[in-house]
User: Fold these one by one.
Assistant:
Number 1:
Amino acid sequence: MSSVIGKNIIISVFGESHGEAIGCVIDGLPSGVALDMDKIDFEMKRRAPGRDKTTTPRKEKDKVRILSGVLNGVTTGAPLAAMIENTNTKSGDYKNIMTVPRPSHSDYPAFVKFGGNNDVRGGGHFSARLTAPVVFAGAVAKQILAQKGITVGAHIKRIGDVTDSCFNKNEVTASELERVSSKMFNVIDDGAEAKMRDEIEKYRLDQNSVGGEIECAALGLPVGLGGNMFDTVEGRLSQILFGIPAVKGVSFGLGFDFASADGKAVNDGYCVKDGEVKTLTNNNGGVLGGMTSGAPIIVNVAIKPTPSIAAPQPSVNLDTMENATLEIKGRHDPCILPRAVSVVEAAVALGILDITME
Amino acid sequence: MSSVIGKNIIISVFGESHGEAIGCVIDGLPSGVALDMDKIDFEMKRRAPGRDKTTTPRKEKDKVRILSGVLNGVTTGAPLAAMIENTNTKSGDYKNIMTVPRPSHSDYPAFVKFGGNNDVRGGGHFSARLTAPVVFAGAVAKQILAQKGITVGAHIKRIGDVTDSCFNKNEVTASELERVSSKMFNVIDDGAEAKMRDEIEKYRLDQNSVGGEIECAALGLPVGLGGNMFDTVEGRLSQILFGIPAVKGVSFGLGFDFASADGKAVNDGYCVKDGEVKTLTNNNGGVLGGMTSGAPIIVNVAIKPTPSIAAPQPSVNLDTMENATLEIKGRHDPCILPRAVSVVEAAVALGILDITME
Amino acid sequence: MSSVIGKNIIISVFGESHGEAIGCVIDGLPSGVALDMDKIDFEMKRRAPGRDKTTTPRKEKDKVRILSGVLNGVTTGAPLAAMIENTNTKSGDYKNIMTVPRPSHSDYPAFVKFGGNNDVRGGGHFSARLTAPVVFAGAVAKQILAQKGITVGAHIKRIGDVTDSCFNKNEVTASELERVSSKMFNVIDDGAEAKMRDEIEKYRLDQNSVGGEIECAALGLPVGLGGNMFDTVEGRLSQILFGIPAVKGVSFGLGFDFASADGKAVNDGYCVKDGEVKTLTNNNGGVLGGMTSGAPIIVNVAIKPTPSIAAPQPSVNLDTMENATLEIKGRHDPCILPRAVSVVEAAVALGILDITME
Amino acid sequence: MSSVIGKNIIISVFGESHGEAIGCVIDGLPSGVALDMDKIDFEMKRRAPGRDKTTTPRKEKDKVRILSGVLNGVTTGAPLAAMIENTNTKSGDYKNIMTVPRPSHSDYPAFVKFGGNNDVRGGGHFSARLTAPVVFAGAVAKQILAQKGITVGAHIKRIGDVTDSCFNKNEVTASELERVSSKMFNVIDDGAEAKMRDEIEKYRLDQNSVGGEIECAALGLPVGLGGNMFDTVEGRLSQILFGIPAVKGVSFGLGFDFASADGKAVNDGYCVKDGEVKTLTNNNGGVLGGMTSGAPIIVNVAIKPTPSIAAPQPSVNLDTMENATLEIKGRHDPCILPRAVSVVEAAVALGILDITME
């Protein structure tokens, strides 16, 4: 168990869903960066639940309190610690999961790993609620990246069978990323929102849940960051992204579509444009040999259906070691994609900030 | 640039394709493990080129010389260093890539990163030849894992449009993994080999190349290894796997198919079997909440078409900063999948060994 | 700047002397450990100021609030986060140090490093106040170590010219360590306290300060922990110990007295005692080849005189770049040894806990 | 056991005293640095044995072979691997230490740690011979540091009761460091060499050994490198220095003399000199708050007497678990200080290079 990551910018995340507070410490930030708290609050709102019927009705006030590292709104260079007090927690809802683990959740391996001592209320430290500090840290990272001319943005590429357009891998612009990220439901095509909401509602009414895919882009990175062999941009971003609950796949550029592609069709040739070397296409998603190529970074993230569904499910009773049927009573998102977009953006921003600090 | 990875078992890989030697140091190995050198040699042969027409005709004798860490065939607990002398290198073939970078290769970002000082002959440290020490280290790891009852095996899931069967995610056996890994062309269905060879040949004759996908399984891991948030089995394996040239995507279990799946269909319910908790299915690929669930680990790896193709390609001349056409003369695999299987197996074995040492 | 340390148990310390709060996150703790909060409070009191005239009259209530990682008094295995709200801060006292750096303090290099953005009030993140979270974390570590049969204890070996007895390097007992650690003024000889207090008072009345040395012992470690070359017990403990402000030297066993010693006199021979291998002496301080030898670990820590003295001192005005005379008005310990003992104990306990987790 | 160290420049050391070869991999070096092999050879000679009667008569040809990372004498930016073949090894001399551990050596804890599988011939991986790769890596580091205007040099401060002068802590010059380092017996006062050789000879004739202290200085570092709390210059240098066999103490500036010092006497005041801030004295050894102050770094290293002495010593027979008397037959330095100076310099150079890469 390690909730610490980073080489130059080290994030340590703490908290349990129904404990006193959640938060993080960000170590290694540059000093002298003026933080726009409104922007941070906006990012927190993107992730927060209770906005509408596509998300759980839990209304957490994800009010961030900064404990250190910021003086008069400017980073001091000392570790930036932030906490969010937990409120509005209904622990009773989760009582039976102590003995009957939820399928496809962390419950059973966590029970074995921690010998039953872990805080199971709301998933404890494994709760998706722990992505709130990640979003906070990512919001800080995005502001520092902005000063370096780097923009990060993401959108829902698909939910079930409903798809959005994709970013133009080679020519997506910062303003397009900002346009998409500034929405509360992050899609490129305005019309995709209603269709995706309908898709989610369909699964909700069926006591079911649905997965999806998020596409994230990052622009403005210099050529040659990261590196072979084990310090690749891909590997470093993956390690953070797989820290987001429900992420089951990470790919770059064409990703798994490369498997049925041929070199003539997908090799990214070069040209000289305005005196600079540019790729003609960007099927590699901005990473070559583990290093930034100068083209936009394009990363795809596969997200599984929320494992918590209302329908009865087969499980076991860990006390009696007999088969059991589990009915989850709590409040759960039938699809986490709408909220997860900000988390993916945050994770990518944190990873890229770490890489740029070398 | 860091070619070092691992927390408990730390691998440091060195070498350049046409330099004096390549190799690695493996730090943190347990003492007292008798190494079967024949098994190691077999793994080296699986990766080595020149076996048949699906691979490059370069005939490297990947003869490993162990420099330290082994005494009378048994590990001493001191760092295990191994080297492979480079022979049969034709540096002349690569002369023009110093000024004209190969599309979709590391050449251009490496040129920028290293200011032209990097060894470009054969790709230098970015060459796929550097996977030889990884395979060696993985072969050592597999023998240590075997003593813990853990088996790792992989196969070519598809090349272009030709597919193999998949492992039974929940019930694949160690003997099945061993059967598949013991082949020189690693497929589950014996009949798939000929079809895949034909597919590769088709692209080769067209001066083209083709990508594919590898599926790797690991059996016998105890429940609860790894962990949330940033120490996930998925993240740790990904960081190593993305160190393999041409890998562009990593996913677990259903991977990107989760995006169009629903919870009722894919949640992995539990049952009690022979007094133990088992999952009824294994769509999560053996990892829940970042931890091992007890089910087999199933990881999918997307591999892009070999970027080095014989057909002319658009590039630039970095000296004159003008557009240029590149014709690659060297000897290259039209598809690296047949050789890459052993590398993926090795990377997964190394990652899992590191995780089991906690 | 990194306030993060540890391989298996990772501590991230945050806070600034006059900011909102200080604290830490401890990642990687075992689950199921019942914490005795009274023992933790006692450790916090040992370090806290304002106890008597040997220490600064600032009366901070170092009340620790645990935010996560503990449920019903038992560790959950999730990161343990703790915070201490800052109160009773008189920032006015430190106003002039923004332009006139205090000699032998971090002020000047911190000014250069952080471009004047760091929080200088009370020393900011460089304040000795940041040792409070270290003591908290160490108090937790000591309780976990106690379950493994490991005891850590320290005492003031000398202040200026006044010395205490030393631990018997080879035969010091756990009960002796507990006896010494349970005092509020940690000396072996009861009579040493009054002499040391007199010594400190002498320097205080002279607007001066005085240094000293702390000796710390750890008992009950199994043989063979740690290791050559860069994972030595000595190196790992040093890295934490040098994180304590004012520590300028760390040595083991005879330490610098080895320089004038000869092998015949100081080699630690072996004997068999009760069927076990024991050292006849322990001049090496329990570490051989970087590994634990089974004998008590004996570490010596040199602490410099408090740099903040009331007497006028030569400095510079960083605004005008002219020489200046500094008169420090604040409240400062003329000798930090009485409070620093608990910090050294905590640092050693944290380091040893990390080493034992392998 | 980890023989890997560094954050930006990562060194992995391998080899066993009587194995096939020893060496190291240096990962993260900048590209484009022309290496002067004569300077590297000179450093290797300083450490090599067999120069005269103060050292063991073993005549190892420490001929370094560079395997990767250097092309046409210039670093490529890829990992630099180097190996030294082992020759002239008389393994027979060490046969009885398998059962009778040498006092004050790593033998016994290594036996327990590795279950008897470690290579005990010549101390195996714990041998001081493993400092040869460290000296090589340090020689590379010194050349890179020289390009940044940083000079590192060390001398024997004392051996037994014979002392050399000390560096002027605040005003030592690069040319003085170079003068001292260029000697084969590194002392400041030319006259000290003969006295120290006599002292060593005295102990040798008595079948005994003697310890000493080395002082190392580093000039030219910018202000503000390193940092509080656990990333201190002191802590990082210590972790490397304690990797050198026989090092038992590390201190900075006045070190343990701070214990009896007072603030008025030892505080390092500031002045403006040629428009720059300078310290009036440098009792802190160039480090304040864990950061470089701009004054020379002064580090003191305590080295214990060579544990291998010719006189009979009390030990135990690990087979029979009975007391035993050990007579060491091999060839051993009665004092390692003359050879250890280059190792300390190398370790400090490596640590500082790592710190300057941030």
Number 2:
Amino acid sequence: MNVEFINPFLTSLLNVTSTMAMMELTPGKPQLKGHDIAKGDISGLIGMVGQQTKGSMSITFEEGLILEVMNKMLGEKPSNINEEVSDLVGEITNMVTGGAKNLLGEKGYNFDMATPVVVAGKNHTIAHKSKGKKLLVPFTHESGNAYIEICFEDT
Amino acid sequence: MNVEFINPFLTSLLNVTSTMAMMELTPGKPQLKGHDIAKGDISGLIGMVGQQTKGSMSITFEEGLILEVMNKMLGEKPSNINEEVSDLVGEITNMVTGGAKNLLGEKGYNFDMATPVVVAGKNHTIAHKSKGKKLLVPFTHESGNAYIEICFEDT
């Protein structure tokens, strides 16, 4: 996998949060997964399968951030993560992956998306089990952090 | 999705745990997801994509059960969930889905598997975001419970 393949996911998340929630997240430097691990309170995960590749993507949010996204998008701020927040994370996962799929398709890198799964639980960690490189981008915002992680392996 | 499609996953998990860990899990009744939710301490998730379908599968374990599986398979029982346990859950996820894929393929229901992702965190919950039916099977064992959940939707 090319290290640049993380960028369409990064761009796509920034687009989704800025257009839908009017929030500007600050992306950190894309990195090969090493010290940093994706850790948060709610995550959207999705599988991707193409003819020459397969992989997985996760977006992980700290509670403070996703509740603020909910507030900015829907005008209501629940006191904690509930089913509506979970549905929102599922939608964001689909939108971000769909956006990245289009950008990567233009470069001749094609895959189909599975359906998303959302995991909720205080301080959970995510580990992608793939033979390929694992790429991570941290995002910061005054209300909390987020992480995107992807990996693809050749089939 | 046919409700019977959960059975190959159920069979496949029982095969894996009985042959590799010499442990007999007791499956509960397969059910459309309603009251029960998959809740546990470590989960393996995987996406599935076929020409006419896409979906997701999760296996969720309570800590006591997965540590006992680890003990029976590798002769060592860590005091809590660590990276080796996480790798084991990734392997089990691949094996169970691979086994179910073969069984479903014999019935003409074909899909490709993405790569698994493992989530660790006390008492997390899993929500599959799919338009299709969500099917769940609980498993019990004296050392803890497990859940398989799958959903497929037509593309």
